Amino acid sequence: MLNFLSLRRSLHYFRHRRLQISPTAAISKPPLNSPRPFCTVSPSPSSSFDSELRKYLGYGALVIFCGAATYYSFPFPENAKHKKAQIFRYAPLPEDLHTVSNWSGTHEVLTRVFHQPEDLEQLEQVVKQANEKKARVRPVGSGLSPNGIGLSRLGMVNMALMDKVLEVDKEKKRVRVQAGIRVQQLVDGIKEYGLTLQNFASIREQQIGGIIQVGAHGTGAKLPPIDEQVIAMKLVTPAKGTIEISNDKDPELFFLARCGLGGLGVVAEVTLQCVERQELVEHTYISNMKDIKKNHKKLLADNKHVKYLYIPYTDAIVVVTCNPISKWRGPPKFKPKYTSEEAIQHVRDLYVESLKKYSASEERDINEFSFTELRDKLLALDPLNKEHVMKVNQAEAEFWRKSEGYKVGWSDEILGFDCGGQQWVSETCFPAGTLAKPNMKDIEYIEELKQLIEKENIPAPAPLEQRWTGRSKSPMSPASSTAEDDIFSWVGIIMYLPTSDARQRKEITEEFFHYRHLTQTLLWDKFSAFEHWAKIEVPKDKDELAALQARLRKRFPVDESNKARRALDPNKILSNNKLEKLFSSLDMV
């Protein structure tokens, strides 16, 4: 269209020029002092007009040719050829295209293949057909893994519709469940039998199949990670169909598959060893590093559950212990010094003050916000300003000081923890001696981490969370060990993503990975620390990836795992890019 308009203007211009040229002007001589033209023969107006016409006709022909070539190279489907093109309209996403992201919104894929079988037979058909077509169906759970370990744009299978309690053995305290059941559903389903799980992670929304596959854990130096509660499994595999494994049936594969990262088979059913449902007393109080060093060994030995929450740029350490109610003494009699409203008021005051400072406004009543919501709101105002983050941390320390006290409740109610909003998190696991003789490396790790934060001026929010577990017999668990009395410490660093602003989230992400890189460089090798499987991120740099692969080989039986994967899933339909990069075969490395 533009070429056509230009052509019309050119024709009009030259017609006009021809009418203006008089016969006298056409033959008039130039002045004697005028410069000599480059070419002594002047073209006639008619030849210039013809040349210009040919040029624009050529442009028009080129446009027509390109349009025809595009049309026949990318034809419309037969049923769409009758439709007229509509300019400036965006095509909607196809109805069969699913957007799947993890909870923190840090990893996302678009896929056309998202299976949700309702029973074992449907699951077997999904896996069988995918294997025949060599089509990927990566197992994905509730999407709570910070690194999106279950995601694959080529296809996924989700077990959410297979969520039943199948069998309860009250005498042996065992339950058999479908793998898609969520932790809270399971706990609610077996409480009438007086049973519960031995330990819990911070939240309750994970599917059982997912929480065991990534080596998730609770806290308590006497308690192992959650995969140790598994005593039997039913896997649907691409090459060997449905198999049942346990300590008695193929124990080598059983222990490997308990923390198999979804790569050895789709977990269909799980048999768990449970414990009697108990009421616990939770004690929360503020301590400091001097007292922690003095009492650490006793705290690990005397408490069923214990964790420390360190608040960067302060001396405050929040200690949380949980133990069964004493049959003789009963629950503690304690009157809190402050009400919950008084405890949170300091955080509200800081938020009001910060809104004025940053010329911001808040539509909702701030009294409606929980503590973690207020923390997110505060951090969103200036998340990478160290001075601002320090003020938020100090307000958090004050909140915990005024929240000291006791709480009584069932274990599934007490052991949870409000982790806050969307976030980046890195959690490492490393040996901490034995229960009888803790080596204090766990405390040394934290001291060096806090020094690193302050030296590098990292805008690190709270908390630095530290928990402990016993060992796991699953060789792919970060807490795996052959020594029964070994204990392991788990330390998490965090940066929240309290905003939906893409630019701000990008800046926070870059700062977090700088933070993580510093801890990796200065602490991981020194303390033999390895990241949680649900939080490990694959490096983009080839040299860094090769170093990570070599490091994983020193800690985990990668070759044995790859061998089992080749036997059970030769076409790699259960894999994804993350697994392939982390566990490359030896010849690729």
Description:
The structure is a single chain. With 589 residues, the chain is an alpha+beta fold. It has three domains: 100-158, Uridine Diphospho-n-acetylenolpyruvylglucosamine Reductase, domain 2, CATH 3.30.43.10; 165-278, Uridine Diphospho-n-acetylenolpyruvylglucosamine Reductase, domain 3 (2-Layer Sandwich), CATH 3.30.465.10; 279-535, 3-Layer(aba) Sandwich (Vanillyl-alcohol Oxidase, Chain A, domain 3). Helices cover 38% and strands 19% of the residues. The strands form five sheets. Strands 16-13-15-14-18-19-17-20 form an eight-stranded antiparallel β-sheet, with helices on both faces. A five-stranded antiparallel β-sheet has the order 6-7-11-9-10. A hairpin with a 6-residue loop joins strand 14 (305-310) and strand 15 (317-324). Helix 1 (2-20) runs antiparallel to helix 3 (45-73). The longest helix is centred in the first third of the chain and has 29 residues, at 45-73. It is globular and about 110 Å long. The model is unreliable at 1-42 and 76-91 (pLDDT under 50). InterPro entries: ALO_C, FAD-bd_PCMH, FAD-bd_PCMH-like_sf, FAD-bd_PCMH_sub1, FAD-bd_PCMH_sub2, FAD_lactone_oxidase-like, GL_DH, Oxid_FAD_bind_N. Keywords: Oxidoreductase. Its EC number is 1.3.2.3. One of its GO terms (cellular component) is membrane.
